[in-house]
Amino acid sequence: MRKDLLDGLTTFLAVAEHRSFTAAAADLAVSPQAVSLTIKGLEARVGAPLFTRTTRAVRLTEAGRQLFDGADPSVAAIAAALDNASSLGGEPTGLLRINLPQPAAEYLIQPRLGAFCSRYPKIKLELFVDNLLTDTVDHGFDAGIRLGEKVPADMVSTPLTHSEPFSIVGAPIYFSRRGHPTRPEDLANHACINFRMTRGLYRWEVQNIDQNSSIAVDGPLIVNTAALALAGAAAGIGLAYLMDRHVRPLLEEARLERTLEGTCPPSPGFCIYYPARSQVLPKLRAFIDFFHRRPLP
Question: Which of the chain's ends, N or C, has fewer CB atoms near its CB within 10 Å?
Answer without folding.
Answer: N
